[in-house]
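Milestone M4 deliverable, item 7.
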Amino acid sequence: MKNKLIYLIISALMLAGATNAFSQAKKPTIMVVPSDVWCNTNGYMLEFDNQGTKVKVPDYKAALQSNADLLLAISKINELMAARGFPLKNLESALKTLQDQAAEDAMLTSKGGAEINESPIDKLKKVAKADIWMQLTWTVNQTGPKKTLTFNLQGLDSYTDKQIAGASGSGKPTFTAELPVLIEEAVLAHIDNFNVQLQAHFQDMFDNGREVILRVKTWSSFDGDLNNEYDGKELSEIIDEWMTANTVAGKFSTSDNTENMMLFEQVRIPLQDANNKAIDTRGWARNLQKMLKEKYQLESKLMMKGLGQAQLVIGEK
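Output delivered:
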């Protein structure tokens, strides 16, 4: 009986250790940012030209440099998440890295003289490389001498921009005027459920792959189209077979397929390659580019939109 009890205790400890290591290996990296609504309400927006269209995006740098409350709010959320074992990226550090790269990107052009066309948010996502953007919105309400804080947290997949976790609520009325205390009292009751949602999403990515989008197009200078045959197969068929072999369990959806373009959505790519090295959308799509070059001598140009959308244009670079 005693030996059996010892065996059960040891087994339970081993299971707990394995479970802990298993979950630790799969936790997503997160970066806390103020929401678009908060930035717009507080006047921290900037405008940029996106192929002739004026677009407004949050100006995180100005917000961090001008609003002490934002630094306190992000710091408190970081603290609460870190206490629960979730690795965090620092927004301020990511912005500094982005600034260092700005001069280099300004000098980067294509062979034809074109400049890189990316939104400021796309550039930040590439630098931060966080799996989840944790958008925070809050307002402080005052009734007489008492204050309450109403908050909204949105966990957004940085590759697809889909919301994969959420929490919102209000704290109890209090006489305190310190923002970190108000945030902690309001968020504490909801953050564990929020983290459960985050973990479930990341576990799904680990099991079923990261969701991305791939567009395949042809240049007008390309001699032919996607119906051209190579070794007895149409080019579109070759690409489709490559997709089946290089996605997790062959999971993808062909949303459009014409003689000049193919659109693949809900594409599930592995988080790591055969050498257990982390892989992103660009690295994964580059393998298709290499295959077309090596096997069929087809040149192509690979372009990215954010982290999760790749576009391969066949015919030349």
